[in-house]
Amino acid sequence: MKMTRIEAPDFDLAKTLDSGQVFHWEPRGSGFAGMIESQPVYAEQRGDRLFVSNGAASRARRYFALDHPLREICAMFPHDPAMSAAREYCSGLRLIRQPVWECLATFITSSMKQVAQIRQMSRALRERFGTRHILGDFELFSFPSASRLAEVSEKQLRACALGYRAKNLLATARRVNSGEADLDSWCTLPDAQLRARLCGLPGVGAKVANCVMLFGYERLRAFPIDVWIERVLRERYFTRKRKVTPEKLRAFCDTYFGEHGGYAQQYLFHHARKTAMRTRKVRPQL
DNA sequence: CTCCAGGGATGAT
DNA sequence: ATCATCCATGGA
Predict the structure, then answer these.
(1) Cβ of residue A117 near strand C, that is under 7 Å?
(2) How far apart are the first and last CA of chain A?
(3) Closest nucleotide (CA of A161 to C1')?
(4) CA gap A86, A111 in Å, rounded
(5) A100-108 and A206-215 helices cross at what angle (nearest 10)?
(6) Interface residues 37-76 of A with strand B (CB < 7 Å)
(7) Interatomic CA–C1' length for residue A213 and nucleotide C1, angstroms
(8) Could you tell me where the DSSP H helices lie in chain A?
(9) What is the pLDDT of residues A142-174, one digit of tens each?
(10) The pLDDT value given to residue A242
């Protein structure tokens, strides 16, 4: 396969794709294969260089946010023990610029699911309702558009293991398809209004809205609070304090972590999740 | 087997 | 305004 070389300092492709922000990239050869918008892409990292299949360089640079000043962003994180450990563990992790609909739909399916299951649902939706592409020896499927999903049945979505999420995804797809929810035009809204619009969609609450703002709309201040982050906050920032209400957590996150709070959040999330997985493997009991 | 997962909507206090 | 419950599914 013909490849194009991209300079990619301060970037870790594998870590970025394994950090729970995007769910469809799969290991192939010595790299990864996935879709960027409607283009099939193979990407492989060698040191500070990223090699991508021909014709994908421009999209890849933007998708992987290689223009984010990562060193400066990390330097602006708060300096506390939890944050420092996460910063060191997650070096090279970047926040991807995802297509908004794909991001929204995927995170509607994410509620009360593990990352491995979100990947399975994403794959099922793509294979059944997306468009098939061939790239060398690889077969890839685009994420189905809102108009495509708007015409399938709830039963078909449940067959993708969506469970109770099927109804929400279908209802949101129909609102987007009808134009009642114009995701593209929302990119000019200030954070609070964008969040309010997103939360008006079926299956979208504060957590999913913040994920879509962060991963889809590039609102780097958005700070999703899920079960992992809440655990980190209670254990590392609110140690031995009673009456830590959701509002207190929210207020703390929105002020303490600053301008790039979403980056800080992703680093804390990835660090917590990966270290927990490791200790479970090493110590099965207890 | 039990417990839990990148939660949200709804109805009861 | 908080709080409890239910919602499907499968990994660990």
Answers:
(1) yes
(2) 48
(3) C9
(4) 24
(5) 150
(6) none
(7) 27
(8) 13-17, 57-63, 70-75, 81-89, 100-108, 115-129, 146-150, 154-158, 165-178, 191-199, 206-215, 227-232, 246-256, 261-282
(9) 999 999 999 999 999 999 999 999 999 999 999
(10) 82
Q: Is the CB of A274 under 7 A from strand C?
A: no
Asked if residue A114 lies in contact with residue A122, where contact means CB atoms within 8 angstroms, the answer is no
Number of helices (H), then strands (E), belonging to chain A: the values are 14, 7
Q: What is the pLDDT of residue A221?
A: 98
Q: Is the pTM of this model over 0.85?
A: yes
- Evaluate if the CB of A120 falls below 7 Å from strand C: yes
Q: How far apart are CA A139 and CA A206, in angstroms?
A: 35
Please, which positions of strand C sit below 7 A from a protein CB?
2-3, 7-12
The answer to which of A14-28, A175-189, A197-211, A268-282 has the lowest mean pLDDT is: A268-282
pLDDT band at A285 (very low <50, low <70, confident <90, very high): very low
